[in-house]
Amino acid sequence: MASFAVKFLGCKVSQADAMTARRALLGAGHTEVPEHEADLHVINTCCITSEAEAKSRQSVRRSLATAGEVLVSGCAVNLHPEQFRAIGAPGRRVRTFVGTAEDVAEAMAKDLAPPARACADLDHDVLARQSSEQASRTRGFVKVQDGCDCHCAYCIIPTVRGDARSRPASAVLDEARRRVDQGQPEMVLTGISVGDYRDPERGLELGQLMVQLARVPGVERVRLSSVEVIHVKDSLLEALATEPKVCPHVHVPMQSGDDDVLRTMGRHYTADEYLEFIARLRAAVPHVNVTTDVIVGFPTETDDAFERTLGAVDAAGITRVHTFSYSPRPGTVAERLGDRVPPEEKKRRSRELRGLSEVRSRHHRAGKLGGFERVLVDKVADSQCSGYTADYTRCYLPGAAAARGEIIDVACLELQADGIRCRSRDTAGLS
């Protein structure tokens, strides 16, 4: 049998798809090995930006330097399979797998024949800085939905992933039970358009599914990866407000705070409507932590439009902004608008947004000083361990404070660059 593992680039959905391939290969009897022992590499790619596509091709080239064969799948391959096949060379073949993650995983498991050996190397880029299922025993990324019906003007994802479709709640709950058995107490629900979730069996909405997950024995936390403002339903607000295990952290992409830019983007809401939703969310869940995505340098984004985005981010009380510089995607509606904002101006706007984000983040974290939090520890080293609060604030503790996967009560003592320095509540001598 072959030895294998999966490498991915991109978002949490790409990671979940990579793990689908991993499970299929394990189920077929194959075994993982470290990269330096492998003859075959399996890579799941990304195409959210031109840079992501370039990184995906670069990853394949790096693998071909040591591996005799590379199996590639994912969004960039669905979009441009011929570009990846062309990377191959005599004696170093690239095989492309086009289709849904489930179909690709099944095809790879069937096609991966001995005596090939595959690498174990999960790659993390700016869109996914989470540890892998293989390396982390604390957090399980559970894909509940795929595809998208929004068709934003700049986005190629509906082309490569198809229409929105939801996974049966029974399958999601079964996966959660398996992950609990593997030692993962936190479930992170992922998808391309997660808020559009509708259980095909019982009609459950996303919030109702999260409550069901919270009731699975051994599940300590249920976290939402991201949700579009137009997809937030009362059932989700109710789950956030009433179920203690549903984490009070909501990532709501804004993309722009200017109405004209939003309209050209095809975002289906105005800046005021976005802010009204955030106000409604905070009314239901006063302690909620809100983060967002913003695209800088969209072709119709003027200086004034960007200033309105800064104002909207500040008004919404956003604690972290993921900024993305616009790049035209061939095949999208926005491609005809060109790329009008100079690269240096995109960088300047990104820096300004990140600066505002840091101020908002420090303000949010400072509000926790002197108080207590519950932290799920996910990283442990000799001198320090760390983990996240329910609202996704990073906390740092002494190395012997807790084991990985343990949830402990901590006292918040001092701001760190990206988190809070803490002590366990017991060792801090506090009650």
Quick overview:
With 431 residues, the chain is of the alpha/beta class.
Molecular structure report:
- There is one protein chain.
- The protein is of the alpha/beta class and 431 residues long.
- 34% of the residues lie in helices and 20% in strands.
- Strands 13-14-15-17-16 form a 5-stranded mixed beta barrel. Strands 1-2-3-4 form a 4-stranded parallel β-sheet, with helices on both faces. It has a 3-stranded parallel β-sheet with strand order 5-8-9, sandwiched between helices.
- Helix 1 (12-27) links the parallel strand 1 and strand 2 (40-45).
- The longest helix is centred in the C-terminal third of the chain and has 24 residues, at 343-366.
- The radius of gyration is 22 Å and the shape is globular.
- Residues 114-136 have low confidence and may be disordered.
List descriptors.
single chain; 431 residues; alpha/beta; five-stranded mixed β-barrel; four-stranded parallel β-sheet; 13 helices; 17 strands; globular
Radius of gyration: 22 Å
Strand tally is 17
- Output the number of helix runs: 13
Poorly predicted parts: 114-136
Order of helices and strands: EHEHEHHEHEEHEHEHEHEHHEHEHEEEEE
Shape: globular
Find the structural class using helix and strand composition.
Answer: alpha/beta
The biggest beta sheet is recorded as:
5 strands, mixed, barrel
Helical percentage: 25-40%
- What is the first-to-last residue Cα distance? 56 Å
Enumerate the strands of the largest sheet in spatial order, edge to edge or round the barrel. 13-14-15-17-16
Set down the secondary structure blueprint.
Blueprint: E1 6-8, H1 12-27, E2 40-45, H2 50-64, E3 69-74, H3 75-79, H4 81-85, E4 93-96, H5 101-111, E5 139-143, E6 145-146, H6 157-161, E7 165-166, H7 169-181, E8 186-190, H8 206-214, E9 221-224, H9 234-242, E10 249-251, H10 259-265, H11 271-284, E11 289-296, H12 303-316, E12 320-325, H13 343-366, E13 372-380, E14 384-388, E15 394-398, E16 407-415, E17 420-424
Parallel strand pairs: 1-2, 2-3, 3-4, 5-8, 8-9, 10-11, 11-12, 15-17
Antiparallel strand pairs: 6-7, 13-14, 13-16, 14-15, 16-17
